[in-house]
Amino acid sequence: MEAQGEKLLQDLVTQEKNLVRKVEEAKAKAKAQLDQAAVDAAKLVEDAKAKAESAAKRDLEAAAKEAGSAREEIVRAARESAELLREKARNNAQRAVQLVMEKVLP
Fold first, then answer.
1. DSSP 8-class letter at 80
2. Which residues span the domain enclosing 12?
3. CA–CA separation, 29 vs 41, rounded Å?
4. Does residue 30 lie in a domain region?
5. Distance (Å, rounded) from C-alpha 82 to C-alpha 49?
6. What Å distances lie between residue 59 and 54, 55, 63, CA to CA?
């Protein structure tokens, strides 16, 4: 009976060692998975940041191009207005000369 008790005790010790080993393996596996998840998350954040910076750069370039086009349009319109005013001034000057000549030389 004592031998049987000794055998049972040894079996229990062996089972406990196996359980401890399995728990340690599970802890190691969980730590490895957490570490990998942290690496993956950092990569995702880095990729998202790069995409956001790229999109912001594209938007900035598009806005600068649009601003340049608007500036060119404003300058073109101002030149056209100035030319129209010059033409009116020329016409008014010719008309003024004509009116003066009509008054002076009837």
1. H
2. 1-77
3. 18
4. yes
5. 49
6. 9, 6, 6
